[in-house]
Amino acid sequence: MNPKPVIELRRASYRLPGGRALLSEIDLVVGQGETLVLLGPSGSGKTTLLKLINRLLDPTGGEVLVEGRATTDWDPIRLRRRIGYVIQETGLFPHFTIERNVGVVPGLEGWNPERIRSRTLEMLRLVGLPPEELANRMPHELSGGQRQRAGVARALAADPPVLLMDEPFGALDPVTRAGLQREFQSLASRLGKTIVFVTHDLREALRLGTRIAMLEDGRLVAVHPAKQFIAAPEPEIQRLVDAVRDADRDLSYEEP
Amino acid sequence: MTFLEYMSRNSGLILELTLEHLKLVGVAIIAATAAGIPLGVAASRSAAFRRWSLGFANVMQTVPSLALFGFLIPVTGIGGRTAVIALALYALLPILQNTCAGIAGVDRAVLEAARGMGMTPWQMLLQVELPLAMGVILAGVRVAAVTSIGVATIAAAVGAGGLGTFIFQGLSMVNNNVILAGAIPAALLAISADAALGWMERRLTPRVGKA
Question: What is the ipTM of this complex?
């Protein structure tokens, strides 16, 4: 049995007003509780695809459905409050403390202050930020990795069923990054959210995805379960896998 | 008669004209701020409106101040009203421009996150854009206020009173004491306004650092 589709793209396209197509006729289904990774080089349309889901952009062709309803039929504000959004630069509000940042969406949703506070502290603990120490700090007083954790906590605060993550770990050093990936993996399986995760990093995709969708030049090359991805027949995928293998060889190079 | 003697003998009048001066500037700055911030917000939303409004404010600022008073007299007559209108028009540019620049300077990632979280345009403006632009906006108000204190000395020429009264009188009498009785308080007023508004600017600007 396939899980119930939460997000569905039907021949969805997005063209700039000037006419250049950023996405062409994408067909894609994301099932309840899975982590779908959108993998592709920069400029392949990954971020544009995410923005079609939370209606930061409207498709110029085809349609995008969230919970069975076309995004163009959703009130964009209601839709976005049901979708957590994490971006590479985090976009934390620099004039809010970490606690206030995490409580933004519950506040917009009109929760009472005690409920916001307890939820915020719970979220900070969940992403491994000790609230006693960090809740009252300002974003610029945190490390890059801590800011990214705060961004995830903020996206989860109002308990949205869907999470969109746009290269959330892209700007971090490799060690911090690997740590966050491990934690994210266990978090994702515990929370049961439907997640769309954008990255250009094959290894990250393999580690985090249930399935991987490969994009190139605004086209969907293929979608494969993560376990079968590196053996997939498509030449675009093989080129990427080979490039990563070549880079790995440099790591195991030894002095003659 | 020494300058200090002149000052102490006329201290009542000096105080009165100083208060009058402050009132002219205060009313003009409040009006310019009340108009300039909403116009600046509108200008940050529409490129066409930005061109027009900044163009208008620029022209106002380019007209020599005495000439601006002169242009207004046929319309609004002699007196305080004309002076306040001219000062407000003069003060509009820095406030409008800084509001626009302050909002344009808000980090795009922050705005994208705000929109992505489901903030309405009003919520974004009031909770994110204006607070983050506040330091730049207040810097504009400070420039406008300090400039206005200087320009307002000319207001005496259109019968609006203020410290310029002493200066013009002293010039016609060729009496340095009288000139300085207007000029020194005006200069002190400008310096203290700069300091006070600078302090307010630091207090109200969110401490954001480099994130």
Answer: 0.89
Select from A59, A58, A55 the least CA-distant residue to A26.
A59
Interface of B with A in 91-120 (CB under 8 A): 107, 109-120
- What chain A residue is nearest to B119 in terms of C-alpha separation? A77
- Residue A118 burial by CB count (10 A; 0-12/13-18/19+): exposed, middle or buried? exposed
A162-166 and A194-199 beta bridge pairing: parallel
pLDDT in tens, B163-195: 999 999 999 999 999 999 999 999 999 999 999
Instruction: Give buried/exposed letters for B167-202 (b at 16+ CB in 10 A, else e).
Output: bbebeeeeeebbbbbbbebbeebbeebeeebeeebe
Cβ contacts of B208 on chain A, cutoff 8 Å: 94-95, 138-140
Q: Pairing relation of β-strands A35-39 and A194-199? A: parallel
Q: In angstroms, what separates the C-alpha of B104 from chain A's closest C-alpha?
A: 16
Q: Would you tell me how many other CB atoms lie within 10 Å of the CB of residue A91? A: 27
pTM, to two decimals? 0.88
CA atoms within 13 A of residue B37's CA, in its CB half-sphere: 18
Give me the mean pLDDT over the A27-35 stretch: 94
- Alpha-carbon distance of A169 to B59, in angstroms, equals 49
The average confidence (pLDDT) of chain B is 92
Q: Which residues contact B118 (CB under 8 A, 6 or more apart)?
A: A76, A77, A78, A79, A80, A81, A105, A108
Rounded CA-CA distance A26/A49 in Å is 9
